[in-house]
Design goal:
alpha/beta; Alpha-Beta Plaits; 6-stranded mixed β-sheet; ABC_transporter-like_ATP-bd; Rossmann fold; 4-stranded antiparallel β-sheet
């Protein structure tokens, strides 16, 4: 079975000489949620634009469900739905008319029941006759998603979909994304809310300066690059670490009032470390463990030189 998206050597250099994409190789599987992360200007929106046929690549190849861009543009583009980052002003057109028109653009026959279900899923059915321009920003964002889904795409791109959306709408939106994934739709999203990517994504790609730094299963990435720490608040400050603790990955912080131990994923070494503390008459009054978040890993990756 072909991938939902397959990119090989994808390049984009703009007329002013700026190289936004530098040899991107990427496969995105059918039915997965893929999070593309990177700072502003990293190339995320350019990559999405190229795959959606809105930006003309200057090198490499793009295949969507086996269809090549730009040679098979119509077939490839029909597979894709896009929710852009920028809000679009729809004027006085009603919600239902706007969504119906988007379906017609792809030559799809009328499907009133389908469109009703899409609007109901997005809590828009009771707004179907309202002019889109009269809706709140969060509701207009939902209309954009409804339009992207109207032609039943197999791949849905969400470019910063929850920017400016309140917490309740964001939660509803991600519930809808999960339902789409369960129906086999491939979801590609960019987001500045890394906790969303951590919760939602199956795999993560990190892009910086037009280059993919990595593509990895989210769970494997967090296990490989994440850190676990044991922090102990001491009863009495230490001026230096006892020699007996020299073999442990431990650091004395907070003016000697706290010990921070890097912990293996299987917690090995903790019991031995605590025994050594007791043997050196070092008492602690509190301890807690912490794990790296996807945000911690992301920030650390971007600090590393390319």
């Amino acid at each position: 079975m072909s991938n939902a998206i397959s990119l090989r050597g994808l390049e984009k250099t703009y007329a002013n000489g700026h190289q936004a994409l530098r040899g991107i190789d990427l496969d995105i599987k059918h039915g997965e949620i893929f999070a593309l992360l990177g700072p502003n200007g990293a190339g995320k929106s350019t990559l999405i634009g190229a795959v959606c046929g809105l930006v003309k690549a200057t090198g490499g190849s793009i295949h969507i469900d086996g269809h090549e861009l730009p040679r098979q543009y119509r077939e490839a583009r029909a597979k894709v739905g896009l929710v852009p980052q920028e809000m679009v002003n729809e004027g006085f057109e009603s919600v239902l008319s706007s969504v119906r028109f988007s379906r017609g653009l792809f030559g799809k026959p009328p499907a009133p029941k389908l469109l009703e279900q899409i609007l109901r899923d997005l809590s828009l059915w009771n707004k179907r006759d309202d002019a889109t321009m009269t809706l709140s920003g969060g509701m207009r964002r939902r209309v954009m998603i409804a339009k992207a889904l109207a032609h039943e795409p197999q791949v849905l791109f969400l470019d910063e979909p929850t920017a400016g959306v309140d917490v309740e709408l964001r939660r509803d939106m991600w519930a809808m994304v999960r339902r789409l994934r369960d129906r086999g739709v491939t979801i590609v999203l960019t987001t500045h809310y890394l906790e969303e990517a951590e919760e939602m994504a199956d795999r993560v790609g990190v892009i910086s300066d037009g280059r993919l730094l990595l593509v990895e299963n989210k769970t494997d990435l967090m296990a490989r690059l994440g850190r676990r720490q044991l922090r102990l608040q001491l009863q009495q400050p230490l001026t230096q670490l006892p020699a007996d603790l020299a073999g442990f990955p431990v650091e004395l912080v907070d003016q000697g009032r706290e010990l921070v131990l890097d912990v293996a994923r299987d917690n090995q070494g903790i019991a031995d470390f605590l025994r050594r503390l007791a043997a050196n008459d070092i008492d602690f009054k509190d301890l807690h463990t912490s794990e790296s978040s996807l945000e911690d890993i992301f920030v650390e990756l971007l600090r590393k030189p390319a």
